[in-house]
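for the record, two folds in this file. i put them one after another cuz i was lazy. first one right below, seq on top, structure tokens after. the second one comes after a little note so u can tell where it starts
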Amino acid sequence: MLFDLKDHIRSIKDFPKQGIMFRDITTLLKNPVAVNYTLDRLLEYSTGKNITKVVGIESRGFIFGSLLANKLDAGFVPARKPGKLPAETVSASYELEYGADKIEIHKDAINKNDRVLLHDDLLATGGTAKAACEVIEKLNGKIILLSFIIELTFLNGIRKLNGFDVRSIIKYDSED
């Protein structure tokens, strides 16, 4: 079956601010065929890699991250912004175009030598994913794969993730 997942992504101009073309997966999520297609593509990247934990980045990374964890018989770990997780956390900072932020994971969420798949819906500049990788490595997890539904290749986020196996289903080469 010929299936173009881009047909299920809504593009919203000037969101969350002027000059940004937001790639919205909520239109994908309301279509079960598109969800299953997306999950199947993500599973193709990760099957046979003996993943023991899937880390999903807040918040849209939780959706397919938890589905992947279930299908891979792995644990799911949320990576969140500061103050959102109730127990002791480990964090790493990353730069934004308008300041800095942090990503946190519970200190007891990843065990030494866990084989980790990091998932988020979108790879843009790579800052959030890189910070999440730093936290996973602080917790002695072994990062096996980074998966994304969408990659904005023109922002070169993959450069920050050098040395990791990075996969994405859809690539946008410009804001248009």
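(here's the note) second protein begins now
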Amino acid sequence: MTDVLLNDVSRVYPDGTSAVSHLTLHVRPGELMVIVGPSGCGKSTVLRLIAGLEPLNGGTISIGGRVVNGVPTQERNVAMVFEAGALYPHLTASDNLRFALALRNMPKNEIEQRIGAESRVLRLGRFLDRKPRTLSAGQRQRVAVGRATVRVPAVFLLDEPLTHLEAAERIRLRTELSSLQHGLGVTAVYVTHDQAQAMAIGDRVAVMRAGRIEQVSEPMKLYRRPANVFVASFMGEPAMTLLAGRLEADASRTWVVLGNQRLPFPGIPSGLMRSRVGGPVTVGIRPEHVTDADAVPDTQAVLFSTAARVENLGSHLLISCPLDTKAVTVSDAPGVEKEHTRQAMLVARFPPTCRVRRGERVEVAVDMAELSFFDPVTGEALWNPV
């Protein structure tokens, strides 16, 4: 198996735009690394640099220990699947799969064996004699994946391969992709803007922002222990609620103050949190850690609000609760307003049996052990759940 190392890599376009800036990333042998980030952050450029489709302006790229700066694409032993699939329209699905193998003068019987195995894994048997225009988007994308993997490259590169598929087809195909990649033992780099895809299939996930890596970790560590407010606001659906708060202490304990309400801090602030007592902090709360107070007997960590919006998702309700404090937003995170002074809206997850309606008073219990805290100036994490 082959690793991929990008060491201090930069890509600057002729007009001076920096797409990738001093980026370092190691993809381990056999790993499925997902690069996730908002549109324009440079994640697709990273793939094109690995493939040799764009030149480097700095740094080195190594594949299997071999520096490939300046090595032509066809000599890097990589295969790439693009967002649109890019099949040969005049060839059948079978001939699309066969094309790369035939170019390598592979024996005919081995070609047929590989196509047969690939079509079984990707469920393409019924479509092998059909041309791309007669296939659905999901079927075309499976053929594109098969064409890339049938020759078992050293590195498999996927650039937003599921973007245009229906939700159910996306879920099915992402599972197939992950199973196929791990079954082949091929190192893969997968680019997407969809954090749900990243969490679902990545062995590790790299979060990009403005040409740089913000954090690399296993999906659950990334979700539970974000390095900064950008990662916290990007990972999760709905995203973590970020609130302007303060830490205050009285004679008996420390409190997390949110506007005109306060919550008991769990234990005694330590580490970076110790010096923040008496000052402002950014408080991060995920929806699953806020629920109907009636469902949590004897809790002392309760906030009072009204239900501004109620979303019934079947398995649970999402209740949006305004609080008397300011929301903390990250301007380039997707789906957020760019105004930094808007009122905070805490999102809570209620059991589906609750009968709360819009405009009604609600009491929400907060799991204080699951809160995250960030520096209000730098955005860096001060404390995350264990």
